[in-house]
Amino acid sequence: MKIVVLVKPVPDTFGDRVLSLETGLADRAASETVLDEITERALETVIRHAEASGDVEVVAMTMAPAESQSTLRKALAMGAAAAVHIADERLAGADLVRTAQVLAAALRRAGADLVVTGNGSTDGSGGVMPSMLAELLELPAATRLETIEITADAVRGTRETDGGTQAVTAPLPAIVSITERMPDPRFPALKGIMGAKKKPLEVLSLDDLAGELEGIGAPLEETEEPRSIMLAAAQRPPREAGEIITDDGTAAERIAAFLADRRLA
Amino acid sequence: MTQPILTLLLAAPAAEGAEPRLADGAAEVLGAAALVGAPVALVVGPESALPALAETAASLGATEVLTASVDTAQLGAPVADALAAAIAEVAPEAVLMPHSIEGADAAGRVAVRLRAPLSVDAVAVERDEEGVLAKHSVYGGAYDVSSAASAGPLIATLRLGSVDHRAEAVAPAVRALEVASTGRPAAVAESFEPAAQASERPDLRSAKKIVSGGRGLGSKEQFALVEQLADALGAAVGASRAAVDAGYVDQSLQVGQTGTSVAPELYLAVGISGAIQHRAGMQTAKTIIAIDKDANAPIFEIADLGVVGDLFTIVPQLVAALEARKG
Ligand SMILES: Cc1cc2nc3c(=O)[nH]c(=O)nc-3n(C[C@H](O)[C@H](O)[C@H](O)COP(=O)(O)OP(=O)(O)OC[C@H]3O[C@@H](n4cnc5c(N)ncnc54)[C@H](O)[C@@H]3O)c2cc1C
Ligand SMILES: Nc1ncnc2c1ncn2[C@@H]1O[C@H](COP(=O)(O)O)[C@@H](O)[C@H]1O
């Protein structure tokens, strides 16, 4: 079985992330680029499954600028057998629909029994990629799984939805997204880091995907036209610290008075 | 403002035999739609529930209601089929839905199908001379960004709890929508377990006041202190990821980067250090109060009132003081 995990390099949430006020795009030079943690969890989940069941090939795939390649090496060091990096300058600022088309084309090329993604990216968009890919690839999608069980012909799991817990299942091939409830990602061991250097890392340009893009009805030329436009971006003024007091036995009263003053209690 | 704005209102999953209600966010998306045009609703659910759900939609301000009956056990594709049919029928200027699991799934599918511009997790919609635009709060509230469609319709999901405006109730004008199924493969919902007990407390996403607890609470039992303080204030309960990971509360109460983003009048953080990813989900609150024993906790950098001290001493005293003031 071949499982493709979609991993995504994002600005590190531990740093100050900067948005260019001119383009509305991430200023990538301003912060360190790391694999989005949720996609590391997706990879961890799949690697554990591969370790337990054998006979599973784990491929990490991303569409990201060429500079972020080291993050794919990390995916290989964690245990993916191969990596696919779609990098093309024409994709800078690609909107969600174009991103989905390109990833779908690459997934078609790779041919996967199961595609696993995170439930949402920390760099701004919000968990629509899996269903967009499912639509383009004509696959069933089981999104936001908190538990997951992969068998030879199906994937099942549970998710929290409006008012309760839903058990869902899909026959393979399928696409799923997982949430933070999945296990913490491992730190690559030295052996993994050394081994990663020998593993295949394929870099694809849009031209390499021309045939597949045609196949899903989204030809190469479509890259040019953005569908949504950013009108304005403004930075909020940072918040300032207010009054800091140390409890001397009266702090509770102080808080109660503060709340009453502001009509919050 | 007569431009139709289509909203997607879904039946919430229901236990066997129970009548479904409209999923959370229905009133909000209709309220948002009313701000920029004429709110039209597509109500999607099991056949038997549609009349009641359509009536609710009208009571929430939908001037026109289209209904589509779907097998709710089939996830994703059938809702997208209905939404695509409604867009063809209504020719809306924008399409709004809650940023819930099902809302986001439908938005994603329809956006690729129609190659339409997609704005995800918007916190507001507005109209300017050019048309409808979506507003976003990016990088944990550090930036405000607005976006619009270069060629319509704009498809947007709205963050739950972000829109206060409510549309006025109207008399129901309901008709059934003809939907051609694409037969796309769908995942299947096998069963549904309703959450144990819907809490009496306000919903975290839309609450005006929130009391949040972190790892400093030390145990699930002691987390009850946060609940007592929340109840004394009539507030919702929130938590840090560390508190969720430690099992003190359910993940649905997590505030932050990868939890819920909130912007209440009052955010009271108890035993939360204020890691950047936590602040990303709450720093746009109007008033922030923090209680933490570590004077260097980063939460104090953004607190309007910061109290350095032991929460186990302060919180019970605060609950008593609040009760005393109520008289
Ligand atoms: C990609 C990513 C996403 C994340 N998303 C989120 C998110 O959505 N939400 C989130 O919250 N975190 C998130 N985190 C985790 C975040 O980095 C922190 O680990 C987490 O917020 C810490 O929670 P905490 O403040 O409860 O715990 P700690 O940092 O351990 O803080 C506990 C605090 O309690 C105080 N304390 C202890 N005992 C007492 C006492 N008796 N009285 C008073 N104070 C006391 C301590 O001084 C300390 O400041 C994310 C991390 C990553 C990498
Ligand atoms: N450019 C990308 N490259 C690889 N995977 C992606 C990309 N964008 C989104 N994804 C995947 O889709 C998930 C949801 O992303 P999003 O819809 O952007 O919030 C992420 O957790 C990733 O697994």
Automatic annotation (TrEMBL), chain A:
Gene3D superfamilies for this protein: HUPs
InterPro entries: ET-Flavoprotein_bsu_CS, ETF_a/b_N, ETF_b, Rossmann-like_a/b/a_fold
Pfam family, one: ETF
Superkingdom of source: Bacteria
PROSITE patterns the UniProt entry points to: ETF_BETA (PS01065)
GO molecular function, one term: electron transfer activity
Residues covered by the Electron transfer flavoprotein alpha/beta-subunit N-terminal domain: 23-213
Cellular-component GO terms for this entry: cytosol
Keyword Electron transport on entry: yes
Cofactors named for this entry: AMP; FAD
Keywords per UniProt: Electron transport, Transport
Family classification: Belongs to the ETF beta-subunit/FixA family.
Function: The electron transfer flavoprotein serves as a specific electron acceptor for other dehydrogenases. It transfers the electrons to the main respiratory chain via ETF-ubiquinone oxidoreductase (ETF dehydrogenase).
Matches recorded under PANTHER family: ELECTRON TRANSFER FLAVOPROTEIN BETA-SUBUNIT, ELECTRON TRANSFER FLAVOPROTEIN SUBUNIT BETA
Subunit architecture: Heterodimer of an alpha and a beta subunit.
Record-given protein name: Electron transfer flavoprotein small subunit
Organism, scientific name: Agrococcus baldri
Lineage: Bacteria, Bacillati, Actinomycetota, Actinomycetes, Micrococcales
Gene: fixA
Automatic annotation (TrEMBL), chain B:
GO biological processes: fatty acid beta-oxidation using acyl-CoA dehydrogenase
Name of a matching Pfam family: ETF_alpha
Cofactor notes: Binds 1 FAD per dimer.
Keyword terms, alphabetized: FAD, Flavoprotein
Every Electron transfer flavoprotein alpha/beta-subunit N-terminal domain range: 10-190
Tagged with keyword Flavoprotein: yes
Gene Ontology MF annotations: electron transfer activity; flavin adenine dinucleotide binding
Binding site for FAD: 215, 240-241, 254-258, 271-278
Cofactor(s) essential for the protein: FAD
Self-association state and partner proteins as the record states: Heterodimer of an alpha and a beta subunit.
Main function: The electron transfer flavoprotein serves as a specific electron acceptor for other dehydrogenases. It transfers the electrons to the main respiratory chain via ETF-ubiquinone oxidoreductase (ETF dehydrogenase).
Family: Belongs to the ETF alpha-subunit/FixB family.
Name listed for the protein in its UniProt record: Electron transfer flavoprotein subunit alpha
Organism whose genome encodes this protein: Agrococcus baldri
